[in-house]
Automatic annotation (TrEMBL):
Limits of the F-box domain: 88-134
Pfam families: DUF7885, F-box-like
UniProt record, GO biological process: SCF-dependent proteasomal ubiquitin-dependent protein catabolic process
Organism: Electrophorus voltai
Name of this protein: F-box domain-containing protein
GO cellular component, one term: SCF ubiquitin ligase complex
UniProt keyword terms in alphabetical order: Leucine-rich repeat, Signal, Ubl conjugation pathway
Signal peptide span: 1-22
InterPro entries noted in UniProt: F-box-like_dom_sf (IPR036047), F-box_dom (IPR001810), FBXL15_LRR (IPR057207), Leu-rich_rpt_Cys-con_subtyp (IPR006553), LRR_dom_sf (IPR032675)
PROSITE patterns listed in its UniProt record: FBOX
Amino acid sequence: TLILCFSLCLVVISSLFPSVSSDSDISMRTLSTPSPALILPCSSPPLFNGSSTSSSSFTAETIAMVHSPPTGLTHPQRGLWQPKDQQGAPIDILPDHAFLQIFAHLPTNQLCRCARVCRRWYNLAWDPRLWRTVRLTGDVLHVDRALRVLTRRLCQDTPNVCLTLEMVVVSGCRRLTDRGLYTVAQSCPELRRLEIAGCYNVSNEAVFEVVSRCPNLEHLDISGCSKVTCISLTREASIKLSPLHGQQISIRYLDMTDCFALEDEGLHTIAAHCTQLTHLYLRRCARLTDEGLRFLVIYCPSVRELSVSDCRFVSDFGLREIAKLEGRLRYLSIAHCGRVTDVGVRYVAKYCARLRYLNARGCEGLTDHGLEHLAKGCPKLKSLDIGKCPLVSDAGLEVLALNCFNLKRLSVKACESVTGRGLQVVAANCFDLQLLNVQDCDVPLEALRFVKRHCKRCIIEHTNPAFF
């Protein structure tokens, strides 16, 4: 029923706005009191905030309109042309709670459009329960202005603060600047999640402002923000707070992938201030070394997931520090860390017995001996990627299969020494195997068929044209 109502709602919306032109925007504004609007330049292409909306659905310049309720409309359909024999649209019979469930599936920009239809839709579209999340996307979106207008409207009932907004996602909005983040920091004290991936115009100062003014912030994604080199409280916030809490930030999830300027000193500051971190992703932060990982382990002993993929200066000494996380570590990615060998993997295997996921792709120093230590030390391993490790052979896979019976995902892509014998042992012992990647491996057809017979739910990624 909900899906049917949702489809019907979209049909009605499209019938009401078959092609929104600049004239229709002007006429709509004459029906309401003056209100802030977000207008793109006429030469700009149409842009939409939700991934479910196609770029050909509308041709308007308006990205989002925040209006007061239409004063000239008291009935949902009054003021719009309709046949004499038509008494009202069928969607009008839906109760309010059904509308709210439908509106909950709409992206931010379409929810703003629904608020322009009639007074009832306006009141429903601005229901606080629908505005716990704001999602804006697009390369040419005036995202700073959009955030200012939206927060101003959401602060209407509670001046200067929006107590309902908990998540802001503006990933890919390259025009986001510090000004937009300042707006969020000042207006959204209850913010819990912020994603600004790919917004490379954001600097440290704006991030400091957000974490200082939003004490409940737990999830922060700043991947691709190349200007961000550190995360800390502002000096004013540190002075106002007590010494015991002045240096603490409640972030638990932090993604700094592709923050190329991050160095050991910055990671030291992050670890000292974000002591509650449980998920940390530092992919392609190429300036980090083993020293930065030492600081991380000292201040953040609760880390469960850690990625230092493509950090070429991380070596076995860094893994020795990571191993101090012991049983708390569940996920570790050291892909393409060329200085890692069996010695570092042995440290992890010895102390991190509850490890579930390991990505060691491209660690060419890893051999069967390291794989043996891993298999015996981490028997609960579920996912392992040892692709492009030329020194791993069938002997290592056999030890792995005899110890890690819960293995569900295995990649040995481009492992030149792996043949059908090792894979058959894996298939005969790991019945729950769901994904096997043997691309660019010299695996005979009989071995692939053997795997398929014993692991019926397993998806095999291969480059053998004879196997299908």
